[in-house]
Each structure stands twice: as C-alpha cells, then as structure tokens.
Amino acid sequence: MIDRPQTSPPQDMVLPVRPESGRHLVLAAVFVCAACGLVYELELVALATYLIGDSVTQASVVLSVMVFAMGIGSLLAKRMRCRAAVGFGLLEAALALVGGSSAMVLYASFAWFGGSGVPLVVFSLTIGILIGAELPLLMSLIQRISRRDAEGTVADLFAADYVGALVGGLAFPFLLLPWLGELTGALVTGAVNAVAGGAVVLWLFRRDLTPRWRTRLLTVNVLVLAVLAGATVMVDDFERAARRAVYGADVRVAVRTGVQEVVVTGGPSRPPDLFLNGRLKVRGKDEHRYHEALVHPAMRGPHDRVLILGGGDGLAAREVLRYADVRALTVVELDPGVVELARSDPALTDLNDHAYDDPRTRVVTADAFSWLREHEGAYDVIVSDLPDPGITASTKLYSLEFYWLARRVLADGGRLVVHAGPTSRPRTYWTVDTTLRAAGFGTTAYRVRGAETGAAGGPARFRAGAEAATDWGLLIAAEGSAPRLGIGADAPLLRSEVEDTLTQDTFAAERTRLTGLVPSTLVHPRYTR
Question: Is Cell membrane given among the entry's keywords (predicted)?
Fold first, then answer.
C-alpha cells in the first residue's frame, strides 16, 4: 500500500495494461505535464509584461524564481516517494488549479488592487515548486512498473519532458493565445493538466491506492475541473468587469489584435481615449497639444514627402495633411488592428479628421526597423511617433542603428522629429538625444505639457498614463547641425499655444539635461525607467 513507507525495493507491480504500455502511458503523462508547465510559465511572463511592463525584467523575475522553486520542489518530492501515486495525484490537481487560475487572479489583482507584482512572485514560486516535484514522483511511478534499465528510463523521462516543453512553448503563442486568449487559455491548460494527472493515478496506478485515497483523489480532481469549468464559463463577464475597473465605465471598444490589446474609452460628452496594452496612448481632451508640437516644428521647410513611423491612430497624419502642399504621406504601423480602428471607429475618425481617407496617405503594415532596412527613398520629414523608449520592446526603435537607417532615407535638408519620452525621466530622454547625435544628427530639445498636471484621465492608478500625458519630451534633428525650432509661416491655425511657448519649452527641457551618457545600441540598450 502506498500509505506505508516501503522498507524494501518494490517488485514489478500489476497494471491494467502490459508493462511496456504502462511505461508509454507514464511517458505520455510526462509529455502533457511538461507542456502544461511551460504554458503556465509563458502565461505568467506574458501577463506580467502586459500588466507591469518591461518584458526583460518580468521574464527574468518569473523564470529565475520558477527555476529556483523547481529545485525546492525536487527536494520536497523526496518525502513523497514512498507515496508516489497519492503525491503525484494531489500535486497535479494543485498544479492544475493554481496554474489554470493564475492568469485570472493576476488580472483581478491588477484591476481591483492596482498591482500584481506580489501575486506574480507568489504564483511563480508555487508553480515552480509543483513543477519541480513532478519528475521525481514520475520516476518513482515508472520504476514501480519495472526496475529494469534505470538509465534508459531516466533518458526517456527527460526526453518526454523536453519534447513536451517544446510543444507547450509553441502552442502558447500560435494556438492558445490567438484562439483562446490568456485567461481562457490558462484555464483550459489547467483542465488538461488535471485530466492527464488524474488518469495516470486513478486508472494506471489504481491498485497502488487504498479505496479511501481513490475516493479522495477522484473528488479532488472533480472539484478542480468544476472550478476551472465554472471560471471558463464566467471568463467573459469577469473580463468585462475587470476592464471596467481598469478603464472606467465608458469602455467603447476593446479588441485584442495580433499585436496588442486596444481599448477605446469615452462617451458622448467626452472625447475618446486610446489605450494600447494598458498604456494611455491618446488622451482625446488634449492630444492636439502633443501632436501639434510633434508635427508642426518639423514641417518648417520642405515637406513634399512625409514619413510617419508609428502613429497608427492617424492623429499625427491629421496634422501633416493640414498642409495642402504635402504630396505624399507614408504611415508605417506595426499593428493593422489599430489602423483599422482608426479608419472605422466614429469617435477616432472624428478625432483624426478621416486622415486615412485622404488619397495622399499610404499605409504600410510593418515593423519600422525592418521597413527602414529594406526601403530606399528620400523623405523631407520623418515623424517618429513610436512607443515610449522606456518600454523594453521599443528600445531597438531608439537605437543608434535605427537612427542610421532613418538618416539614410532622409532627404538633404530634411528634419526628423522624435518622441523621446517625458523629460521627467531625464536619463531616458537624454540618452535618445545622445544616440541621435552619435548617428550624425544635430538636435534641438523641447517638451510640451498636457492641459493638466494631475491624472491623465481614466483611473488614477493606471500606470504610465499621467506621466505620458502631462510631459512629452521631443527632439527635432537634422543631419549635421541642430535645426532652429519654430513654426513655418505656412502652418495652419493651431489649437494649442505651442507656437508661443516653444522657446520656454526648449529652456524647460534643457534644464533637465544630463551629460556623460552613451548611445543606445541594439546589443547594449541604455534606456531605463
């Protein structure tokens, strides 16, 4: 019986199938459990990146904590080897429940309590301990089938584990995430985990269990599956409630594209706000202050051909197209979902003045870095309206190599304007300036402030929103010498006072200057929060 410690090596046990078939079934369980375990890890990394930001840091925290916890789990499994079947059954039920519910709990913590850092570490530690205990227990179980060829058994177990991890790692981005989403994908993975673990113990090793433990394990697995099934049924309602808690009650559109989550809020009495992956990208009430300051100083001079990198919302394009003598505008945007929303959503089309309906506008769906590498041309103005450089995924778009590529397609006498993050983060802002100068540009720094210095609209706890909306740091650059900051005589009538405040905006930015910084490159990104 497994509820008593073994005092001597067990004999080959009687199974409901031939020993070789039993061996293969255990290896299949190893395969499934390894696939589920890696899905849990990737779910935590993806959610942490989305909810907290800075993917390198979050991935490092999750993976390092989990690997450490797996070592603890392996040591703890030694105490359960004499009760391997019961231990493995309870472990898999716990792993299915914890791993399957982890995404929902993390999202709930972020939505209602404003943070998910502590739950992230707790889940990483718990899941890691449970995953680490799997293989030692499975080794004990497979040795109950046959004591022969112990070395080959170890090799088979590890091979099944590694192949399962490969399948789980590929299934997450290509199947689970696009088809089911993060919340449902985690719940379904938990259910698969529970079924695989329960089947191995309750059927294959049922003779290794007392009737009492068979009943207990069956009850536990049924309860776990019931909880996961109930959560799956309620996931849409949960997501809507959590979204209201995060974005407010007036969510108009919420879609997950192939690149990111896009949310539009606003009502009849309030201009729309646009959030990308939980970050406030556009605040409708004062976005014109940012976009006028971004575009119009760069349009002082020749501007027949204009290139916008990013800016899928169409708002920078709106300002460019206000110049009647612009002959061609190219917008390079990574996410076609954002462009489609900017084309079709009535509130956004009103805000961007139907910029994508203008025949001068051409949209290219591509990564800006890759597109610049492959493109030949000469643009009078390049507007870099890209995500904040402090976001890890964006650092290559603020690298020395990126600005070399931009310089290659800039016409003689052309201007490049860059959104460089808020001057309230001077190290990031002035690293962009240093990188531009290293690429052969002369630069002029300036900034523009939002209409308010308080919260940026939407929930006050919503990260990065207030900072991004109240202090936009900008750099205008030209090859060789620094361009003089100003608004051209042919500029349209502006809604903001940017034309009158450019001088003081330059002084305000210069007061934050840091020296001694080094350029950011692809292999050595220098941007920090």
Answer: yes
Q: Is 385 a catalytic residue?
A: yes
Task: Please tell me the total count of domains within the chain.
Answer: 2
Contact 156, 194 (CB under 8 A): no
Q: How many helices (H) and strands (E) does the chain have?
A: 16, 11
Task: Pick the last residue of a domain from 190, 215, 245.
Answer: 245
Backbone angles phi, psi at 275, to 5 degrees: -115, 135
User: Residues 286-316: pLDDT tens digits?
Assistant: 899 999 999 999 999 999 999 999 999 999 9
Q: Which residues are annotated as part of the binding site for spermidine?
A: 291, 313
Residues annotated within a binding site: 260, 291, 313, 333, 367-368
Residues 241 and 289 in one domain: no
Query: Annotated catalytic residue: which of 385, 388, 471, 505?
Result: 385
* pTM of full prediction above 0.70: yes
The residues with which 305 forms a beta bridge, in sequence order, are: 328
Residues 19, 17: Cα–Cα separation, whole Å: 6
pLDDT, tens digit, 9 for 90 and up, residues 468-517: 446 899 999 999 899 999 999 999 999 888 888 888 889 999 999 999 99
CB 34 within 8 A of CB 161: yes
